[in-house]
Amino acid sequence: MRRSALTIALLLIAACSKPETTPVRRASLNRTGGTTFEILPAEGQQPYCLAYSVNRAGLTRLLTMSQTNQSFECAANRPIGGHAFKTPFNEGPVRVYVFFSSQRLNAGSVSEELLEAPDRQALSVMSMRLHGNVALEALDFAPEEDVAPSLGRLIGEDAGIVP
User: Fold this and answer.
1) Is 48:101 a contact under the CB 8 Å cutoff?
2) Is the entire prediction scored with pTM above 0.90?
3) Buried-most residue among 44, 74, 97, 111 (CB within 10 A)?
């Protein structure tokens, strides 16, 4: 009897313990230059998104401007907006916030809530009043000086060099 009670207790403990999981990445940054980057949504995200950057001084920029002032359709593994975004080198590192939503969000309303947030460097979607199912991804980007390409010389048969 004692052995079966111990077995049951061990099974209960094993069932209640949480397995270690790695955080799900909703998006990633792809550096395209010293001060430029693309935002690539991951598979399985909500269909619409808005992206903002916030520097350490608190300067907040809406990266995804649309003519309708609403969120973009965001396809997985394709750059948001179809292009790279630029952050000024002299402003230092930025945190990029990407809001994924089940329905289109008004960028003006989200911007207003961001500006009212007490700490834009530690933002939480739970503290915002957004419609629909919304998830937030925070990514860090540190701009580097853009380096001009250097001119070299051709190598190989076309350059007149014979092996």
Assistant:
1) yes
2) no
3) 74
Dihedrals phi, psi of 159, to nearest 5 degrees: -90, 5
Work out the burial of residue 156: count CB atoms within 10 Å of its CB; fewer than 13 is exposed, 13-18 middle, 19 or more buried.
exposed
8-48 pLDDT, tens digit per residue, is 655 555 555 555 555 678 999 999 999 999 999 999 999 99
Task: From 48, 42, 69, 73, select the one nearest 139 (Cα to Cα).
Answer: 42
Which CA distances in Å does 132 have to 6, 60, 95, 114?
47, 24, 24, 17
Number of H helices, E strands in the chain: 2, 8
Structure tokens that stand for 138 in this block: 């925070």
